[in-house]
Design brief:
The chain has 112 residues and is of the alpha+beta class. The chain has 3 helices and 4 strands; from the N terminus they run αββαββα. The protein is 42% helix and 11% strand. The strands form 2 sheets. The chain has a two-stranded antiparallel ribbon with strand order 1-2. Strands 3-4 form a two-stranded antiparallel ribbon.
């Protein structure tokens, strides 16, 4: 997935007009920058991946959702633009599996 996103970012060419005169086009080499129109979409891709991994961890009983009552729906996470809150009763025996999920996401971020 990271390669697909990087190819979308690095295959684009930008053209800047200076005083109404088009300058030579250029290609970005450092990925997305703040304010780039693709930034919100990239955030959504990553947030969706994190949410999917956390849902899988709930299904695999790696983490247990927080419930305010026995019959209430559970909640495992809330995602925000600048962070995430995880809600869980973490069993020490499952800690390594959760860390593996985290390291997978961290590695995906480093590769993109």
């Amino acid at each position: 997935m990271g390669a697909v996103v990087m190819s979308c970012v690095t295959t684009i060419r930008y053209l800047v007009c200076l005083n109404g005169v088009p300058m030579e086009s250029f290609q970005p080499s450092r990925g997305l920058c703040q304010g780039d129109p693709l930034s919100p979409y990239l955030f959504l891709f990553v947030a969706d991946a994190l949410s999917s991994i956390l849902q899988k961890d709930v299904q695999d009983n790696v983490i247990e959702e927080l419930k305010i009552s026995r019959h209430a729906p559970g909640i495992s996470h809330l995602l925000f633009a600048d962070g995430a809150l995880l809600f869980s009763e973490l069993m020490l025996s499952k800690q390594a599996e959760l860390e593996t999920s985290y390291q997978y996401l961290k590695g995906a971020r480093a590769r993109s």
